[in-house]
TrEMBL record:
Keywords from the UniProt entry: G-protein coupled receptor, Membrane, Olfaction, Receptor, Sensory transduction, Transducer, Transmembrane, Transmembrane helix
Classification via Pfam families: 7tm_4
Keyword match Oxidoreductase: no
Organism, scientific name: Acinonyx jubatus (Cheetah)
Any one biological process term the GO annotation gives: cellular response to lipid
Record's protein name: Olfactory receptor 51A7-like
Function: Putative odorant or sperm cell receptor.
GO cellular component, one term: plasma membrane
Annotated compartments: Membrane
Membrane topology: Multi-pass membrane protein
Length: 319
């Protein structure tokens, strides 16, 4: 068991870490191999579902429009989330291998938090895409040009990366003692931070700052929809009101799919008197599994243009 413990040198600037332990689903270790089947299926669908619209949008010039650029950026962040958590999840449920090296753990938490921030930013940008689509649909393409969208997406992606970039460095400066058991099937900053036996106040406050920045996106999205709703209610015709609301149905679903697990997990963590470890693990796993799986379904079902192009590609291949 010694090789499973976290080792460290006496010099705090040269922390030597051996191994952390991840967890699967407590109490269900004997059926992890069966649980791996739906998990593998969900990952496969998520990867295939996000690669398909990316390929179709890339190859079809008729889809080189603002809405589809947004969809491409959202699909890329979903793929990043899937690939970030895929190795540790499959190792746990397929091979019951719960050990993860410290370097791999710190790298994983960086990518998970980074792609989470990117997805949150994409949903934030897309919320303001709905406003001109409702208020001034005739000038939509002139207001949101392709270059503006790509520039905004690039700026927000860089912002998300820079925001989480200090996290692995702050974790690497900590000393870790006998505690080595993490709380989830993948590494998160706040989870690794709690294992430290040295002063982790810098990690705590900066981690809180990062969390508040990401959660602020949900606040701005809510504010944008207040203005959208106000604009919709100002439309005289009931049919036009429904048509305007239908413009942003897919985005509302994507926002709920992404933020509901995060807010639920935070609420349980801070306010629940009797926390269920099983419930928290399942919600945390759903946070990484469900959005990449559901977003392509939501947007492809809503966008008949993508459905038509996908069917055309499939029919050409079958000939």
């Amino acid at each position: 068991m010694k090789d499973l413990f976290v080792m460290f040198s006496l010099n705090t600037s040269e922390v030597e870490i051996s191994t952390f332990l991840l967890v699967g689903i407590p109490g269900f270790e004997s059926v992890h191999i069966w649980i791996s089947i739906p998990i593998c299926f969900m990952y496969l669908l998520a990867i295939l579902g996000n690669c398909t619209p990316l390929f179709v949008i890339r190859t079809e010039s008729s889809l080189h429009e603002p809405m589809y650029y947004f969809l491409s950026m959202l699909a890329l962040s979903d793929l990043g989330l899937s690939f970030s958590s895929l190795p540790s999840m499959l190792r746990i449920f397929l091979f019951n291998a719960m050990e993860i090296s410290a370097d791999a753990c710190i790298a994983q938490e960086f990518f998970i938090h980074g792609f989470t921030g990117m997805e949150s930013s994409m949903l934030f940008i897309m919320s303001f895409d709905c406003f001109p689509a409702i208020c001034n649909p005739l000038r939509y393409n002139s207001i949101l040009t392709s270059s503006r969208i790509l520039h905004r997406g690039l700026i927000f992606d860089i912002k998300s990366i820079l925001l989480v970039l200090p996290l692995p460095f702050t974790l690497n400066r900590l000393r870790y003692c006998n505690k080595h058991l993490l709380s989830h099937s993948y590494c998160l900053h706040q989870d690794v931070m709690k294992l430290a036996c040295s002063d982790n106040r810098v990690n705590f406050y900066y981690g809180l700052f990062v969390a508040l920045c990401m959660m602020s996106d949900s606040v701005f999205i809510a504010v944008s929809y207040v203005f959208n709703l106000k604009t919709v209610l100002g439309i005289a015709s009931h049919g036009e009101q429904l048509k305007a609301l239908n413009t942003c149905v897919s985005h509302i679903c994507a926002v709920l799919i992404f933020f509901v697990p995060i807010i639920t997990l935070a609420t349980i963590h801070h306010f629940a008197k009797h926390k269920s470890p099983l419930a928290m693990i399942l919600i945390a796993d759903a946070f990484l599994l469900v959005p990449p799986l559901m977003n392509p379904i939501v947007y492809c079902v809503k966008s008949w243009q993508i459905r038509v192009k996908v069917l055309e590609k499939l029919s050409l291949k079958s000939k």
